């Protein structure tokens, strides 16, 4: 007879919150004693898609959770270890009968880890209960019923965190477990300009958006500078699960009933839905991490230029709006959607580089890195799906239209700060006399453009449009549409 105390474990992944967390809610509903666990796994710490900014955001999120667990004399058990090693150690002291977590639509290494963990649970007679995350359904063959299933998820009232007295494993008990593990330092830089992690901070952004910022949502959504305040800025809090997409949607829905700015809220809610749509697509097409969803584009070969890649990553391409975007992203972890599309279009079309060469740099830089958004969007902007409109963004047109006063450019490319507005957008238009008058030397103070826009755009357009006529591309396009076209419930 096993005399060890019974324990249920909640394994946190990208759901770093207590409120509206189905894994925690369902674990507490059993009435058994519960341990909440997070592990900094070496397989992810060493994965090239992640960077220090992500781990700091996660640490700040965990610190915030622990602050909210203090009244319950509990905290998250935080280890730095392989997840199976964590459970092996827990099993030496406790009889673990159930593990609760959310299904994760992650990268290939997390998929393989989960398969290994599933085998581990079966071998140790542990029931692993996985809950749906963000309305994404596992195992679907097509989208015939997806919209109805997604609607059902969004319509559930957000769940409260309400443990029974002494139901959560106590701090002394958790500290006894920690003695057997490497415990990560949760200290993060205080001077970083990234958004801070944690539900408390996420709610501040959400509340300020709904209280005062959302009316300008649609007017400024494409503006690189103005969007930084008029957009919600909650994407990292959704990506890492500080906020549930369901509770955000519910607040927007309720506000819409009395708001004078219904269209802004409808646009915002639509994007919440599209987030689930793209993650669902990635869930159903996991090969998108490494190859284009449309297999007809696998024959497209592009020569990799390390010089082009370096200029693009460091913001030294000679095109101010591109360089401002990349420098801003590298320093702050945020760009609005249009500018994200612009820099990917420039890399894949004008520089003619494979989209795969953008994956790790952008994932490391985006504070809100979400695999289910990341890979489908890269392929869509690269024009390699066969079903989406081919969009080759013109950097100059976007620069003039969305940053007309060149404020964003001058903020992030300070070497152009003293130039007149037209030259800040296109410094290569200056004559030698104008350069002398402005004490500015192109090629010294700022690089010449590394490519010519019109010719590179034409090459990309010709190649991609011709490839879209290929029989395999057409066949794949039909397959993709049949599999992923949304069908609304009757």
UniProtKB/TrEMBL annotation:
Keywords: Chromophore, FAD, Flavoprotein, Lyase. Binds 1 FAD per subunit. FAD binds at residues 217, 268. One of its GO terms (biological process) is response to light stimulus. The keyword Amino-acid biosynthesis does not apply. Its cofactor is FAD; (6R)-5,10-methylene-5,6,7,8-tetrahydrofolate. Gene3D superfamilies: 1.25.40.80, DNA Cyclobutane Dipyrimidine Photolyase, subunit A, domain 3, HUPs. GO terms for molecular function: deoxyribodipyrimidine photo-lyase activity; DNA binding; FAD binding. It holds the Pfam family FAD_binding_7. The keyword ATP-binding does not apply. Residues 6-136 form the Photolyase/cryptochrome alpha/beta domain. It comes from the Bacteria. Belongs to the DNA photolyase family. This is Deoxyribodipyrimidine photo-lyase.
